[in-house]
Amino acid sequence: MRTVITAAQLLTPETCVARPVVVVEDGKIASIQSAEAAPMPAAERHLDYADSILAPAFFDVHTHGARGRDVMEASTDALDTIGLFLASRGVGSYFPSTVTASEEEILRALDGLAQQVERVDHPGARPVGIHLEGPFLSCEQRGVHPPQDLQAPTIELFERFFQAARGHIALVTVAPELPGAVEMIEYATRKGVRISMGHSNARAQAALAGIAAGACSATHTFNAMRPISHRDPGVLDVVLDREDLFAEIICDKIHVNPSAVRLFWKAKGPQRSILITDATSATGMPNGNYRLGSFEITLVDGTCLLNGGLAGSALTLDRALQNFMECTQCGLQAALRCMTANPAAMTGLEKKIGHLQVGMSADITVLAASGAVQATILRGVPAQIP
Length: 386
Hints:
- This protein is an alpha/beta fold.
- The protein has ten helices and 23 strands.
- It has two domains: 2-55 and 362-382, Urease, subunit C, domain 1; 58-347, Metal-dependent hydrolases (TIM Barrel).
- The strands form six sheets. Strands 1, 2, 3, 4, 5, 21, 22 and 23 form an eight-stranded mixed β-sheet that branches.
- Strand 9, helix 2 (103-118) and strand 10 form a beta-alpha-beta unit.
- Helix 2 (103-118) crosses helix 3 (155-164).
- The longest helix is centred in the first third of the chain and has 16 residues, at 103-118.
- The radius of gyration is 20 Å and the shape is globular.
């Protein structure tokens, strides 16, 4: 089926098109033109968003769940519920993110998640790879990850996880100071897996060794990291200083103060900043108790807690976009890059995700000028949101 999509504006990290005419055939973008450049093409379906902006669908590389369902369930029902909710918030693709658990439980979850990545019939946002967050984390900066299940990174253990996931592990959070971390980072990087430094108490030397071994990003910057020190620099100092390193941030105004968000933006800029949610099963739900992996968290007025400490978030990417624009005063085009082109570049998926180009999947978020999501189009079809 041929579909024509029109709007007031098309906005990507590279360009801005006034009165765009996007032709979609078999779920892929066939052409993008301005209404002034060519007559309206014939099509079986015309989607007109006359006062809105077309942008690439969002890509969240760090999310643990939504609508009462947890990624570690790793079932079709759970992932479909999560994916439909994410689509309602403008997300087209995501990495379901695990949490630290027993080796047996992680292997079970990875097998189930691999089945979901391999599916082709997702009704909402698609899981396009797996983010392994844990068990290769620092005990001192573990956050809510259970200490009894933390493990030192080894090539052998990583390979067991990789095989269980049938090669679909795309991103791994690692504390680079741990014994064996550098060797595992080098090994995983050679297999095409991206490494993000996080839940780390590393001093600068260990962080730099992790980068030299292949680490290319930082997990939820500021959170679960050795704090900045002007005399004894650590991983956070390195993250903010290195111009070649991507870095995530949770912009919910809870995990990171707006002044620190501005510092982050000044340090990382429009080319390396990545907006994530670190969302849990409590996202999109009322106050109450929910699951994060094997443990129970409590949602209280937008904040996820475990024993009085933060335990993931209830953030959505559309809210993160608006918060980020408010905190930094950056424009919509620059902020969009942080949840489209940048995570795609960090993960090596820039030819599939994060852009609107001929030949790519027609995954499009329809926005108001404020950044509010008005509709999500997946594979050229408006997402059916329950």
